[in-house]
Amino acid sequence: MNIDVKGVHVEITEKIREYIDKKLHRLDFVSEHIIDLLLFVSQEGSQYSLEANINFRWGNSNHMRVKSFDIFEGVDKLFDKMELKVIKEKNKIQDHKGHESVRSAEAPNPEL
After folding, report:
1. What is the pTM of this model?
2. How many other C-beta atoms lie within 10 A of the C-beta of residue 69?
3. Total of domains in the chain
């Protein structure tokens, strides 16, 4: 999984980077399914805007945005959203594969 954190009008300090790295462990259960995780942090006045783009290995991508007055609270909210989106996306793929295998199991055997 490639992780890229960029700041727009915000310097990504070591403390912010460590906090984000600590939160990344919440996505370990799908790390083999994610190709890229792009995080953008920007400041608009006194409010922070945090955005994430997740690119999955099967071609789908998700975009999430959170606004917060506290950057650490914003990171928490963003990772809550990301976790829910990733679970939903993973379940869609598993359901799709599950239906496919059920159909192949129901197919009549031509050798009989």
Report:
1. 0.76
2. 10
3. 1
